[in-house]
Amino acid sequence: MITVALAKGALLADSVSRFAAAGLDFSALLDGQNRQLMVPSRCGRARALLVRNADVPVYVAYGRAQLGVVGDDVLREHQLPVSQLVDLGFGGCRMAVAVKQKSGYRSSADLPAHCRIASKFIRCATAHFSAMDLPVEVIHLTGSVELGPITGISEAIVDLVATGRTLRENGLVAIEDLFHSTARLIGHPLSMRLDRGELQDIADRITAATPATV
Length: 214
Hints:
By secondary structure, the chain is α/β, with parallel strands linked by helices. It has two domains: 2-91 and 182-208, D-Maltodextrin-Binding Protein, domain 2, CATH 3.40.190; 93-180, D-Maltodextrin-Binding Protein, domain 2 (3-Layer(aba) Sandwich), CATH 3.40.190. The chain is 28% helix and 29% strand. It contains eight helices and eleven strands. β2 (38-40) and β3 form a beta hairpin.
């Protein structure tokens, strides 16, 4: 049986829709009354695991799921050995450096050396400032990183930005983008190599249902 890892939250509805186009119905996951974390497809040839976004590539990398859907931001941060199969195009957001609106900073280069940067995305933040040769202290926060500059624990943050509303409502502004992120269909490398066509057929059907990006 094929196992698919799907992320809770913003990506779920679109993920379920794409798999439906491939003939796998996981719509039970969208039922507000559902409390199951593993549900079979109606056709009976696959099942879906409902997991946290950051856990999707873990299940795929360790072979507990053959396919999964996760944001490119998670793939960049965790860098686990999975195969990227399709850019699904939905769940668009950007990884950005943000500061207090009144700070006067206009780019990452304006930040002072050895300042503190708060982020959930330690690897992405560290890589960005290392590439600039700007020494900073990256602080790992798991909750609302917007509080970093507000409380003074950090000079700036590195975080995902979709509409920018949360930043604005907390007196922050994005000053530089690191990269743009969308949802990706990923696969377990060994499972894809040993595939007798079933996994590739699902990937092909999902690709056909994915609007072309300009």
